């Protein structure tokens, strides 16, 4: 009898900020790349957060929390002089967050050390955003990590605009190194103006095709909350219908969407199916409190429905 071989889990790196979200009701682990890695891990990949924390109690607690969630933490560095990152979060009546992101913290000093570069060379996907690049040190480190990725690695730029921590140059450079770009409909409006695009702010297909034409990614994905999402490539433009849910808070929902999109693409699923899975996963996270709810069993049910 021939034994079945199990394919190795694809390595999926969330590269950038790792922090505590400080809600009025208490603290929760967060940071978009860490959220992405967490949900990729729940979806069957080997999700690895790559970041930096302080040599302090908050950093120790973050690492312990991630380990309890089943995440490997070997790509999390320790900074001897800068504290672990924190973000003050307020939610409006509909559950949408506003942030105060504190500066001069450990993840601003991310380094491209040998272990991070080695794992990047074996990764199937690397996701990064704008916030993690707000310091020149971290920005250069992220670029170095991406340069060490293999030719078949999915480089995902999650635009993820926060406060004043972005610029036209950072966005343009990021668009040029990415092969998948993900953003929400509000960010489409900002980028349409910032990049001086000749498209209407509600013309998502036109926006996506113009980004692809100018900067070279293979796919642009635009999320619209309860209205669904649009996926645009050179060959296809797919509209994914929204899901009506009771929103608890939307923190981490977009990161879960991105993780599910990447995991589905790596599994070789058709593009529409990838978008539908990502939309369902993102909606589920928005129906739970915090950015990293334990939804492994629910995610597996979503994947199984698509397989049947």
Write the layout of secondary structure elements.
Layout: E1 11-15, E2 19-23, E3 26-30, H1 32-42, E4 46-54, H2 57-68, E5 76-79, E6 85-91, E7 97-101, H3 114-120, E8 125-129, H4 136-147, E9 154-158, H5 168-177, E10 180-184, H6 185-194, H7 204-215, E11 219-223, E12 229-233, E13 237-240, H8 253-266, H9 271-286, H10 296-307
Parallel strand pairs: 1-4, 1-8, 2-6, 4-5, 8-9, 9-10, 10-11
Antiparallel strand pairs: 2-3, 6-7, 11-12, 12-13
Structure explained in plain terms:
With 308 residues, the protein is α/β, with parallel strands linked by helices. The chain is built from ten helices and 13 strands. The strands form two sheets. The protein has a nine-stranded mixed beta sheet with strand order 5-4-1-8-9-10-11-12-13, with helices on both faces. It has a four-stranded mixed beta sheet with strand order 3-2-6-7. A hairpin with a 5-residue loop joins strand 11 and strand 12. It is globular. The two termini are 27 Å apart. The mean pLDDT is 92.
Please tag this protein with its features.
308 residues; alpha/beta; nine-stranded mixed beta sheet; 13 strands; globular
């Amino acid at each position: 009898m021939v034994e079945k071989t199990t394919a190795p889990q694809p390595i999926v790196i969330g590269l950038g900020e790792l922090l505590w979200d400080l809600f009025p009701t208490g603290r929760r682990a967060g940071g978009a790349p860490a959220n992405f890695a967490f949900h990729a891990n729940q979806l069957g990949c080997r999700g690895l957060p790559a970041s930096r924390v302080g040599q302090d109690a908050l950093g120790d607690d973050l690492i312990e929390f991630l380990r309890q969630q089943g995440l490997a933490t070997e790509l999390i560095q320790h900074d001897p002089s800068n504290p672990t990152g924190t973000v003050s979060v307020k939610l409006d009546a509909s559950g949408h967050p506003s942030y105060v992101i504190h500066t001069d913290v450990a993840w601003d000093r991310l380094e491209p050390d040998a272990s991070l570069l080695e794992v990047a060379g074996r990764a199937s996907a690397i996701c990064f955003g704008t916030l993690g690049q707000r310091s020149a040190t971290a920005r250069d480190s992220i670029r170095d990590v991406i340069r060490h990725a293999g030719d078949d690695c999915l480089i995902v730029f999650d635009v993820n605009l926060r406060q004043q921590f972005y610029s036209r140059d950072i966005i343009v450079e990021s668009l040029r190194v990415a092969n998948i770009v993900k953003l929400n409909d509000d960010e489409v409006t900002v980028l349409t103006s910032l990049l001086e695009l000749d498209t209407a702010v509600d013309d998502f297909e036109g926006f996506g095709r113009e980004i692809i034409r100018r900067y070279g990614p293979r796919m642009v994905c635009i999320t619209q909350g309860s209205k669904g999402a649009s996926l645009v490539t050179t060959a296809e433009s797919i509209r994914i219908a929204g899901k009506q849910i009771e929103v608890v808070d939307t923190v981490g929902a977009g990161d879960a969407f991105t993780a599910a999109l990447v995991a589905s693409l790596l599994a070789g699923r058709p593009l529409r199916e990838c978008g539908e899975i990502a939309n369902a996963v993102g909606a589920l996270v928005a129906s739970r409190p915090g950015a990293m709810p334990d939804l492994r069993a629910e995610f597996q049910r979503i994947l199984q429905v698509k397989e049947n």
